[in-house]
Design brief:
Layout (H helix, E strand, L loop, with lengths): L1 E5 L3 H14 L4 E5 L2 H11 L5 E5 L9 H9 L5 E5 L4 H10 L3 E4 L4 H12 L12 H14 L11 H11 L4 H8 L3 H15 L4 H10 L7
Parallel strand pairs: 1-2, 1-3, 3-4, 4-5
């Protein structure tokens, strides 16, 4: 696995790196401590990374500016957001931008490792401490409704359905290529077609919209 960690506190990036290496001694880890370093890292390693762990509150940027730029440059990169912003609006915003999960800065190790595992399996992670089960279901419903809806019933080819299911399992593009024995260009064409079909701009939007449209997507 290749992990990218973006946080302006060296102690945090160091602790996260050690935690990941304890779990996976062979993991490849790259870190950045500023918005500028983060964008250089994304340009260099983002296409082949399995997961980005991103702190939203970096010096020199406000709100979700950094995440928006990262998503623009690497729309298929899976992102787990770590933030001290715990309001529902902030959580909804990062999910709409394509984050695969949200973990509060007050996290403990077990929560973070659970979030990483869940996200890598294709889930969308929000800690139960922030939302009760009922609120969680309502939140996903509300988030899905806030996304652009396809103008008509969605029809996917069998191959696109296969790609969609692999996206839902959390598979990165390179693994989908191997599983389906297709080129990266072909897979990206299928992914783009899936996004268009659901009126989505990223993986999380597509999965939320697919679930809303009746596809068997677990969140």
């Amino acid at each position: 696995m290749k992990y990218l960690i973006v946080d302006d506190h060296a102690l945090v990036t160091g602790a996260l790196s050690m935690m990941l290496l304890d779990r996976e001694p062979e993991a490849e880890i790259h870190t950045a401590g500023s918005a500028e370093e983060a964008l250089r890292l994304i340009d260099r390693e983002g296409e082949s990374a399995d997961l980005l762990i991103l702190d939203l509150t970096m010096p020199g940027v406000t709100g979700t500016e950094l995440m928006e730029e990262i998503v623009r440059r690497q729309p298929m990169l899976k992102i787990l957001v770590v933030s001290g912003l715990l309001d529902k609006t902030s959580i909804m915003r990062v999910l709409q931008l394509g984050a695969a999960g949200f973990v509060p800065k007050s996290f403990d190790t077990s929560m973070l490792t659970g979030a990483i595992d869940f996200v890598l399996r294709g889930g969308v992670f929000i800690p139960s401490k922030l939302l009760s089960d009922g609120q969680r279901a309502g939140f996903f419903s509300e988030t899905a409704k806030s996304l652009r809806s396809p103008s008509e019933e969605v029809h996917l080819t069998e191959r696109q359905k296969e790609v969609l299911m692999l996206l839902a399992q959390g598979a990165p593009i390179k693994r989908i290529c191997l599983d389906l024995n297709l080129s990266e260009g072909t897979i990206k064409t299928h992914v783009s077609a899936i996004y268009r079909a659901f009126g989505a701009t990223n993986r999380t939007e597509a999965l939320l919209a697919a679930r809303r449209a009746g596809f068997d997507i677990e969140l």
